[in-house]
Amino acid sequence: MRYTQKHLLAIEGLHPPEIASLLDLAENYVLLNRSGKTQRDLLRGRTLINLFFEDSTRTRTSFELAGKRLGADVINMSVSTSSVNKGETLLDTAATLNAMNCDLLVARHAESGAPNLLAQKVEAAVINAGDGTHEHPTQALLDALTIRRRCGRLESLTVAICGDVLHSRVARSNIHLLTTMGSRVRVVGPPTLMPAEVADLGVSVFHDMARGLAGADVVMMLRLQRERMAGGLVPSAREYFRFFGLDAEKLRHARPDAIIMHPGPMNRGVEIDSEVADDPERSVIREQVEMGVAVRMAVLDTLSKWTGRNV
Amino acid sequence: MSDTLFAGVRLLDPATNLDTHGDLLVRDGCVADLGGGLGRPDGADLVEAEGAILCPGLVDIRADLGEPGHEYRETIASAAQAAAAGGITTLVALPDSRPAIDDPALVRLLRARGEETGSLTILPYAALTKGCRGEEMAELGLLAEAGAVAFTDGAHAVASAKLMRLALSYARGFGKRIVVHAEEPTLAAGGAATEGALATRLGLPGIPAVAEAMIVARDVRLARLTGGAVHFAHVSTAEALALIRRAKEEGLAVTCDAAPPYFDLNERAIGDFRTYAKLSPPLRREEDRLAVVAALADGTIDAIASDHQPRDADDKRLPFAQAAPGGAGLATLLAVTLAQVHAGTIGLMAALELLTARPARLLGIEAGRLAKGETADLCLFHPERAWQVESGELPGKAQNTPWDGRALEGRVLGTWKAGRRVFGP
Questions:
Q1: Which residues of A touch B142 (CB under 8 A)?
Q2: DSSP 3-state assignment of B362?
Q3: What is the pLDDT of residues B315-349, one digit of tens each?
Q4: Which chain B residues are within 8 Å of A191, Cβ to Cβ?
Q5: In what order do the strands lie in the sheet with B58-63?
Q6: Residue A310 confidence (pLDDT) above 50
Q7: Which helix (H) or strand (E) holds A169?
Q8: Catalytic member of B23, B96, B264, B307
Q9: What is d(CA B161, CA B113) in angstroms, rounded to the nearest whole number?
């Protein structure tokens, strides 16, 4: 089963073959990118707009590069959300984009569900590049590609997702993807950073790194934003690092060949120690960035084929 | 250290449900043997006391030590002296000192200072919020790692329900309880006595009794929401106890303790503006005192704690509303509890359990057991021997007892810490 939907708004609800087809296509793009070649005819004449209502460097750059490697005309729009009413801006923007005949719209927004609203209003295929604390589907796909290449499979793995699950769209998308593909997902962190009834998403919950990491094949760290400490969810950075920061001592509980992942940007000395972040054998953090471009090329490729507005 | 043989005493240990006439031998700081007809090893000290009871050293889970910051009221050394005289060998200290015990180094310091006394194990509660100010959660994980047994802001409830929710949730991750002084702070502010006819006649600003039930109701619901564990200290009203009883029936991690003033005295003790009877929470009506007694008897209450709050004469020699609340309680803990036994409201074994095994179990403290191999922390007391409480004559520094002049039955004859005699002739 190919991926046949018009948009990519969420991982939740996707079927294993849809996910696998995107990853298979992405594999081809990994090879293409490594060979130094491009495929500039694929999206020639198509318009890709990176519509970012929230600051991002990595994701936007990754989509920009993916679009350009496939030959699309890429335009970056950064929209400040501070000055105007958000709902109005969003719909106004949708009308503007329609007038521009945009084909592919990559959208990031601080509010959960904003890309869904855009998808109802624009003619372009919408790719969610992160919405609030809801989903970040291309991040989960690039993580899955990284895991599949390193571990050889996506099923029957034990994956520990550690840290600020409460505020993490990366965690939610990864939970949906990995459980859909048949892996066991654990979430590990202080209770104050766990969403209510998170076990309902099909994960097991741990508040202790030693137990949460025991026997894990994959250790996925999440970024802890500084404002979480001001908000009183965590008392201090030193306490967080002591109990929930990944260091060599805590990593000992995972499998000896476990890989270390982080969606970036990292807070070294808060959620991750440099010793493990920079471990040449086990850290795949830089590989994740490489996979990001390939996965986004696969997504752009797939959506451009199935939107029906073929050039 | 030479051996000690306690011969012909009544051995009473709630943890093992032991109640027998016999002997107990202490060797190398531990209980080497206990039972009937133990021989006296060469050179062993002999302790004989007709009609006396030997039980585990008492475990007091709520006391203010004065130190650091209020050394004019009490010091660790003087508190240890008063504790030894009261048969207490393990004590959990409140953190709302100056500075507040909100740093791991301070937790370690207090534990070490306890060891230095040689007579008292001090286990600190750590501050729940930084500086006990009720604004930001303290470093609960690091504090627990340093040896804090639970968290509390001492004499104040956390005003913010949101902060309390986060703290209960966060503390659960470290398997620790939050201990609550249940008194709604905005209702309690400026109050000096329980609101009612007596306070009205005396012209004292009142604190409505519901201030307690309000916080209990809130925190029981937050415990249910978060899965956290909450312990209510010195519960004093019937309504609060009813809420706690219901929470326990529901299976929530809710516990509570009682302090002697609240089951022994009622608001009448303030009489003619006696500031030694000004406590926090304030003494209650007789109906509430009876409810505390009933809760002791039916098991709703998990521990009896001294709630020792040392104050010096200058803190108390003030117009009632301006006087500092708090009563000294270490030396009288056992005797005031025994008054309930003598009155027939609670059995001796159950009363001692509330002073030893139950508080130890509640906070995961290794103490409060009389068994072979256990550390020989012991309390020898005579259950009927009469004495009179006299302010000025109490052991330790703090003399602010609410029982000044009261005749009590039941006297500590001797206290042993790890086999060494720390109180008694």
A1: 238-239, 242
A2: helix
A3: 999 999 999 999 999 999 999 999 999 999 999 99
A4: 169-170, 172-173, 226-227
A5: B58-63, B88-93, B121-124
A6: no
A7: helix A169-180
A8: B307
A9: 35
Residue B190 backbone zone (phi > 0: left; psi -120 to 50: alpha; other: beta): left
Question: Which among B139, B166, B173 has CB closest to A232?
Answer: B166
Collapsing DSSP to helix, strand or coil, B307 comes out as coil
B164–chain A nearest CA distance, Å? 11
Q: How far apart, in Å, are the Cα atoms of B285 and each of B32, B267, B271, B275?
A: 48, 6, 13, 17
CB contact under 8 A, A233 and B166: yes
Mean pLDDT taken over chain A: 93
Fill in the DSSP letter of residue A68.
H
CA distance A190 to A245: 11
The model's pTM is 0.94
Geometric angle at alpha carbon A198, from A197 and A202, rounded to 5° = 115
Which residues of chain A have a CB within 8 Å of the CB of B172? 191, 207
| B152 CB burial (10 A radius; 0-12, 13-18, 19+) | buried
Cα nearest neighbour of A194 on chain B: B169
Q: Helix axis angle, A169-180 relative to A16-35, nearest 10°?
A: 110
Burial class (CB in 10 A: 0-12, 13-18, 19+), B345: middle
Residue A311: its pLDDT value, please? 42
Domains and CATH numbers, chain B: 4-54+375-423 (2.30.40.10), 57-363 (3.20.20.140)
Name every chain B residue with its beta carbon within 8 A of the beta carbon of A234.
Answer: 170
pLDDT (tens digit per residue) in A116-145: 999 999 999 999 999 999 999 999 999 999
B367 phi and psi angles, rounded to 5 deg: -170, 180
**Chain B window 226-255: which residues touch A at a Cβ cutoff of 8 Å?**
226-227
pLDDT tops 70 at residue B411: yes
Render pLDDT for B32-74 as a digit per residue (tens, 0 to 9): 999 988 989 999 999 999 899 999 999 999 999 999 999 999 9
Minimum-distance CB partner of B141 among A232, A233, A242? A242
Cβ atoms of A290 and A296 within 8 Å: the answer is no
Contacts of B348 (CB under 8 A, 6+ apart): B12, B338, B341, B383
Backbone angles phi, psi at B380, to 5 degrees: -110, 125
- Identify the band that residue B246 occupies on the pLDDT scale cut at 50, 70 and 90: very high
